[in-house]
Amino acid sequence: MIDSRAVSRCRWPGAALLAALGCAGLFATGRLVPPGFHDNLLANPGFEAGDEGWTYPVESENWGHFEVAESPVHTGRRAARLRLRAGPEDQAKAVWVLGVMQEVRPQRFPDVIGGFYRVEAWEKSDPRTQLYLQAVAIIWSDEAGVVINRGRPSSSGIQNYQLRFYLAGVSEPPFRLGNAMFDFVSREPPRLGEWTYFEIPLREQFQRLWGLVPERYDRLRVLFEARWDGRPPGSTVVADAYFDDLFLGYVDAAPGS
């Protein structure tokens, strides 16, 4: 389990600088690069330009479109809002996902992924419903089958392997996939009404869980989600989650940066 130290205040290597200047002032200075980190690979990480740079897997019938809200926000004027709703009239959606997604092709695999989330509502009428927040990193590669097969030749046509990080809401994986490994940032329900920081050592986690740091790949897809799985027909779900000031980048400056 990741030692998340997930708190509603800043916890980076530059903590002394943050204490002196304040989180909001640093985040509001433009492209988000937390003190101690370098080169945010995400476009529009604080959603100040609306949904520019962000999308979602439109090919999936289990995904809905996210919103951009003006309140609450961690810094600036906007944040992504994920508004999950189901009621007695809804007999179909056992699985439903809202989230934001970007794909990048960095020459050097990133060290860290993180940001802030906030939950304003979090209710489910049936305990069998798995309601949770997660961050996902997916590597698209022609070598995915070999990686999944732990370096042995593979005839599998699968094109990606991934890591799933449960941020809040579940204490066990809701389901398992043959091409996915997982870890927990927290096994607790989300705290309501406050911004919570999360930080995941992405490079280290790929090395630990898959046995390698991705080098030859087509693209890296990152997603920040609120979702439910296993919802019984007609049961109620009411959840409002927000993401803001998201980050994907490096602990040390890349050569030449």
Task: Describe the secondary-structure layout.
Blueprint: H1 15-21, H2 23-27, E1 63-64, E2 67-69, E3 79-86, E4 96-104, E5 112-124, E6 130-140, H3 144-148, E7 160-168, E8 180-184, E9 196-200, H4 202-210, E10 219-229, E11 237-249
Parallel strand pairs: 1-4, 7-8
Antiparallel strand pairs: 2-3, 3-11, 4-10, 5-9, 5-11, 6-7, 6-10
Give average pLDDT, whole number.
Answer: 88
The description of the largest β-sheet is:
6 strands, mixed
Which CATH-level-2 architecture?
Sandwich
Give the oligomer, counting copies of the same chain as homo and different chains as hetero.
single chain
Number of helices: 4
CATH topology: Jelly Rolls
What is the strand arrangement across the widest sheet?
1-4-10-6-7-8
How far apart, in Å, are the first and last alpha carbons? 33 Å
Per DSSP E runs of 2 or more residues, the count of β-strands stands at 11
Q: What percentage of amino acids are in beta strands?
A: 25-35%
Number of domains: 1
Could you name the CATH class?
A: Mainly Beta
Summing up helix and strand content along with how strands pair, one would put the structural category as mainly beta
How are helices and strands ordered from N to C? HHEEEEEEHEEEHEE
Q: Segments where pLDDT lies below 50 for 5+ residues?
A: 3-31
Q: How much helix is in the residues?
A: 10-25%
CATH superfamily: Galactose-binding domain-like
Radius of gyration: 18 Å
